[in-house]
Write a structure and sequence with these properties.
This protein is mostly helical and 219 residues long. Helix 1 crosses helix 5 and helix 2 runs antiparallel to helix 4. The longest helix has 45 residues. It is elongated. The relative contact order is 0.15.
Length: 219
């Protein structure tokens, strides 16, 4: 899979982000996207071929693998990366809309098209809420689909066409569990960063509005 579009998106968002937002971009790019491309993708590459059961009944291994792994960890991780990065497009599109509006009217309508205020502030806050929501949804999904964040060495399967309860062995369970723990930790860190940025912006602009009203009142 080519991740160039996501890299370009994160680079574009970085220009319009606050300090906390830039930390979020760095965490997503370095500790999630690069780790995924450089290491995690290869660990899960042959997970189906390396999944073995102690019986050679035709179809048994396939059915058991599908039961315990309805969707691959790595594909769900990729989907999570895409979904948590996509809301940032709202900010990019809003800035592009401001720039096009200035060109159309051939005059300066904003102090800076990328300055977070007015409508762009609302768009930015919505993008933060969506990113946080997606992070939480995917963490819950990971937990529910795989009964926790642990990767067992052995699973027992009694689904047809298996003739009885069979033992199935998962390849590289320790290595996979380390990466899943890393995934969960970086996901939690991104949630904290998003909530911190959300609180910071709301507090900053609440103070700004209060001061404007105060100054107007006492003029």
């Amino acid at each position: 899979m080519s991740w160039g579009f996501l890299r370009d998106l994160l680079s574009g968002v970085n220009k319009y982000s606050t300090g906390i937002g830039r930390i979020w971009v760095a965490v997503v790019f370095i500790f999630r996207l690069l780790i995924y491309i450089a290491a995690a993708e290869n660990i899960w590459k042959y997970e189906h071929d390396e999944f073995e059961c102690n019986i050679k009944q035709p179809g048994c291994e396939n059915v058991c693998f599908d039961h315990f792994f309805p969707i691959s960890h790595i594909r769900l991780w990729a989907l999570q990366l895409i979904m948590v990065s996509t809301p940032s497009l709202l900010v990019v599109f809003h800035v592009a809309y401001r720039e096009n509006r200035e060109k159309h009217h051939n005059q300066k309508l904003y102090k800076s098209p990328g300055e977070i205020d007015g409508g762009l502030l609302c768009t930015y806050l919505i993008s933060l809420i969506l990113k946080t929501g997606f992070e939480i949804v995917f963490l819950v999904l990971f937990y529910k689909l795989y009964n926790g964040f642990k990767v067992p060495r052995l699973v027992k399967c009694d689904i047809r066409p298996c003739p009885n309860t069979v033992d199935c062995y998962i390849s590289k369970p320790t290595e996979k569990m380390i990466f899943i723990c890393f995934l969960v930790a970086t996901s939690c860190l991104c949630i904290v960063l998003n909530l911190s940025e959300l609180s910071y912006l709301i507090f900053k602009y609440s103070i700004k509005c209060y001061l404007k009203r105060y100054i107007k009142k006492h003029q």
